[in-house]
Amino acid sequence: MNLPTEIRATLAELEAERHPDAEEDVHFTRGLARTVIETLTAPGELVLDPFAGFGTTLEVAHELGRPAVGVELLPERVATIRARVPGAVVIEGDARGLRDLTDLAAGSVALALTSPPWMTANDHPANPLTAYERDDGDYRTYLRDLTAVAGQVRDLLRPGGHLALDLADIRHEGEVTPLIADVTAAVSGVLDHGRTVPIVWDRLPHDLVSNRLVVFSRSS
Known about the structure:
Elements: E1 7-9, H1 11-17, H2 30-40, E2 46-49, H3 56-63, E3 68-72, H4 75-84, E4 89-92, H5 98-101, E5 109-114, H6 139-156, E6 157-172, E7 175-177, H7 179-187, E8 192-201, E9 208-217
């Protein structure tokens, strides 16, 4: 795995790339996706995004000659991705049910690359895994559910395949949520933690304290 020691991003590229319907907290850039996909896969290998959002991972994978499959909860975003990346497979559904949503064979995925919806540990009643549409948010449950998604991804990864997560520590109401460390510790229970790569911004986006790409692998 020859990822760079850091991945650079700028607010200007983020603003230029952000879909008109995207919220300010969408921080995933094409440059990040390109770096990870080019490094961790070969042309023809399958890329999965279980939280597909507006389709950046799928679009870049398709451009690089990798078949792409995404799962997205919101139907309007599914429609956006299908228009944006006609060659990708996009499934409408809740990533927590990933195993039942796709007909992907076990061991068929080379890379799962995603920016999961983030959550702060304080003052966050909206549940990220319901697209923030239900007020049953609980940080420990969120970490447990993300880990369950990672476990389902593990079943789809080929041996040596990777799950790469875009994560950030977030300041909210004067408190900092160590999301990077918390998710890393949780997901390390189902996959092997390989590397954590700093994402270095010219100016950190709103409320972010630090941003990292955390890479896990399936060893067998």
